[in-house]
Design brief:
Length: 822
Amino acid sequence: MTRAMTSELPQPILENSDPETLSSEILKALKYRVGKDATVATPHDWLTASIKVVRDRIIDHWVESTKETYDLKEKRVYYLSLEFLIGRLMRDAFSNLGLLDSMRQALESLGVELDVIAGLEPDAALGNGGLGRLAACFMESMATVDIPTHGYGIRYANGMFRQEISDGWQVELPENWLDHGNPWEFERRERSFEVGFGGHVESMTSGQGQLERHVWKPLERILAVAYDTPVVGWRGKRVNTLRLWSSMAIDPILLDAFNAGDHIGALRESNKAESLARVLYPADSHQAGQELRLRQEYFFSTASLQDILQRHLSQFGTVETLADQAAIHLNDTHPAVAVPELMRLLMDVHGVDFDQAWDITKKTFAYTNHTLLPEALESWPVPLFERLLPRHMQIIYAINAQVLQEVRLAKKFTDEQVRRISLIQEDGDRRVRMGNLAFVGSHSINGVSALHTELMKETIFADLHKLYPDRINNKTNGITPRRWLIQCNPGLTRLARETIGDKFLDDVNELKHLDDFAGDASFRERFAAVKRGNKERLSNLVAARLGIKLDPSAMFDIQIKRIHEYKRQLLNIVEAVALYDQIRSHPERDWVPRVKFFGGKAAPSYHNAKLIIKLANDVAKVINRDPSVRGLLKMVFIPNYNVSLAEIMMPAADLSEQISTAGMEASGTGNMKFALNGALTIGTLDGANVEMKECVGDDNIFIFGLKTEEVAERRNNGYDPKAVIDASPELSQALSAIATGVFSPDDPTRYAELIDGLYQHDWFMVAADFDSYAAAQRDVDKVWQDSADWYAKAIHNVARMGWFSSDRTIRQYAKEIWNVPV
Ligand code: 26W
């Protein structure tokens, strides 16, 4: 059954969007906005002009959206996040507005290729990984499902570092994404707020000696200046605002110093202030602990809250109704200092008493936890906190007193439990626990997958959950199908439209109708052809960037994500070594040709993660050069994995590696992107893999390894990795090859310590899961050999991923946390 289509892509929803009108507007923008003539314009100039033309159209919708929210007194959502990993915006905006085809034609008529200039747009890499990308998907979904939202964050001058691989090692280089300016953003100098640090607190007393108000007198003050980027929802329904703060000195030039001839010294304040928003901290699983990081957290929290309160006051005249009109969401604990900051603004600036301020605060805030890793849980030394934010420290003590009072009244907590609930960690150095602070200051605390949420209740927040049993809830993550299907996989999008019509473009659950075609041989062939095209696109990229020739008919097996021991890239590499060994010792078997792709950045200070990158490259070098492998196994580490690369790799994958130690990956979202694009998953029962298995069905996913309870049980009952390794000949051989320098002849002991860690403790259960993983990989091979079976499974994956749309996730947040209509 093939349904007719009216056009290549959705009809433009904007007037005057025919290619002729657009091309004349592009020329006008080139002349008057960029200051260039078509004959001398560089591709970058065309990019800027094209973006300006579309941005102008967005503005009308933006103004409309804002006005409507104001007129109808709609409740607003404020999403506070230190990271927004938005990637490129041009294709997203063109596509969501239905302008992609007209813009392509308009540019073509001017001799410019859209795909070429699209490739020049820098990735806005204002995030590390999952948490930042989730914030970006959420922004797009909130615009799509029509929720009035502001995202608030920092406009880092240098986002996530650029990764180069030099001799197999990761090298970090600064990413200057603003070098050519940023045609999307609007600077709002008029929207700037003062941010204080340090100093002391004065207590003002009334005539009768009664304490009335506290006034914080900061020693340092800088300015937060707003930069706004419009966020367009699907079909341009609504345009929301991503407001990123940049820092500057209140007095950019110290005139006294300047006039005294100290021209450099005159800029000291300015340099210091601007350094605050310079870099994104590149650690995604370890708290940095630097003072600058706490300054960043406070800087964007206070600027955002001042902005929110100003908007609320100008419309409603009183802060008392804040919780009715505003839902403020804390993306992890990074903005948790917003809790005492809102208290301070309400009490010290707006004269609200403590009890009412606390009530408003709890009703306004909600908090999402994204990790259970103990080393990632933020806490700050009390002396540092006190020095930087003395008034906030007082407020935290006051909140703590209030909470501990409730604990005592509940009469069901041991001393140990009380100590764990306290906002102040007292053993060792005294520290402020940001997770506990975010928890007590919020009416809702959510995890990001069903398993993660249960584990939150049982582990890090067990005591707080006992105290406030109604607060923890689950909101399983999702991804936006616009970027992660419609834009990144035009071939599959076209095939789906021809097969089941256009409904899925507006409701991705409609993809379920593809299920009926899994048994249709001609559909499977067309599906396979789309996959093949996407694999060719990736192969071309690899050939161009790395000079490695790949065979697109081989299985493309991909693990792309941050490099971390718990994500177990090492398990994958060790299995590749074992497979390499097997292929050489059993050349007679019908091995399935595979390309194993790796990509991801390691935190610059994470020694083992960087060593794992080097190992992947060392192993790749040996395998790729060995003629006895006969091309059956290739390994590729793609440098500088980012959103734009993901958009090419997700559609080209046959097999998606989601192999974290059970209980350690909060959710994962790459897992969803792969499956939506027709890859099969090999994975553990971790994070959202569990729910993906439920949706796609046991037959359409390869599950292996220990379950969460089994991991815990092993760790508690004297797990002996050496015994496990000794019992597995394949694993022993692979490990000893790595440890003795087979892949590092230039430095034979390079991996001795890394491998010894597996023998000694193997915290992440690489050895324990190895045999089960290797067996699952051979199952994968078997299914691959029956290509009808393989593609039927792949089609079921696409058809059943609708639930993992971030539109679904956002609707749940809206109904169950924010109390805004959808
Ligand atoms: C303080 C240092 C730091 C920085 C970032 C600690 C922790 C983080 C993030 C919480 C790490 C992160 O990105 N977590 C990921 O969040 C995704 C979105 O919910 C999940 O899908 C991933 O499983 C989780 O690892």
